[in-house]
Design a protein that fits this description.
Blueprint: H1 2-20, H2 30-41, H3 51-58, H4 70-83, E1 85-91, E2 93-96, E3 102-105, E4 111-122, E5 125-131, E6 141-145, E7 149-158, E8 186-194, H5 199-205, E9 214-223, E10 228-241, H6 242-250, E11 256-260, H7 262-278
Antiparallel strand pairs: 1-4, 1-7, 2-3, 4-5, 5-6, 8-10, 8-11, 9-10
Length: 281
């Protein structure tokens, strides 16, 4: 009996944290989820929300217009998987709009028809693994972010399966998260980020309403490899941890320009110089 109570305490804390820090639950749903946990485990196990946790809950993972009910999407996709049916949906991307905001865009997206195979969570987000029915790629499966899917419909067509022991059936290859917890110096940083890739910024920092970054407009930059001008969004990140930000920014070096941030520039140059001399030969 004692061991069951002890394990229940751990489970209560974990589930409460999962609700508070979720990247996919809309803020308006989190208080009800949290209240349900209090009713299930008791207020002794699940404490009341304080000012800190409430601020975490209030962080907006999506733009004000066109927010996605992720959990509803998951239930629809799972139903299609259970029924072995195909689904149709629109896949949104974040775009920098003419009124100077970053919003989730579905208007210019075509309806896609896919065979869903498995739902998986990675780094706090839900993905659906689908059969790759395109002949342009060689891999047997593709991943789609469920929190970017809209207008999902189950159709009567039977899904196409991946035969054999596909790589996607080994979840250890995909359940990888990279927490960035660093101490150290901070500075104001301004970057240019390709407008077509702005979804990557929202993935990590949420929308502009959270106050973690500020949009300063757009400009065009010429890419030397193909001499094509690309539209860049100018973003300001106030007082960010340089070490943590440097690892994030290195993932997107092919679509970013560092405009301001002397310590960040120095850190990146030194790290890349060392890598070129010692690790990439």
């Amino acid at each position: 009996m004692g061991e069951e109570l002890e394990s229940s305490k751990y489970l209560a804390r974990f589930l409460a944290d999962a609700v508070i820090y979720s990247k996919v639950l809309n803020p308006e749903y989190k208080p009800d989820y949290y209240l349900s946990l209090q009713e299930l485990f008791g207020v002794g196990q699940v404490k009341g929300l304080n000012e800190f946790t409430q601020k975490i809950i209030d962080l907006k993972p999506y733009s004000a217009e066109g927010g996605i009910d992720v959990m509803e999407n998951i239930l629809i996709v799972q139903k299609a998987i259970d029924m072995q049916k195909k689904i149709e949906f629109k896949l949104g991307v974040y775009r920098y709009t003419s009124d100077g905001t970053i919003e989730l865009d579905f208007e210019n997206r075509n309806i896609q028809c896919m065979s869903p195979l498995q739902i998986m969570m990675s780094n706090g987000r839900y993905y659906v693994i689908v059969k790759n029915e395109r002949k342009l790629r060689t891999q047997d499966f593709l991943f789609y972010r469920i929190d970017l899917m809209d207008e999902i419909e189950i159709i009567e067509t039977k899904r196409r399966d991946v035969h054999g022991q596909g790589e996607w059936k080994n979840p250890q290859k995909f359940l990888v998260s990279n927490p960035f917890f660093y101490s150290g110096e901070k500075e104001d940083i301004v970057i240019g980020f390709e407008e077509q890739q702005i979804t990557q910024v929202v993935d990590w920092f949420g929308t502009e309403e959270n106050g973690l970054f500020e949009c300063l407009g757009t400009y065009y930059m010429e890419k030397p490899e193909n001499m094509v001008k690309v539209k860049m969004v100018k973003l300001r990140f106030p007082e960010v941890n340089v070490m943590a930000f440097s690892f994030w920014i290195m993932q997107y070096m092919d679509c970013v320009e560092i405009l301001e941030g002397d310590l960040l520039k120095k850190t990146l140059k030194e790290r890349m110089k060392w890598a070129l001399e010692n690790r990439i030969k």
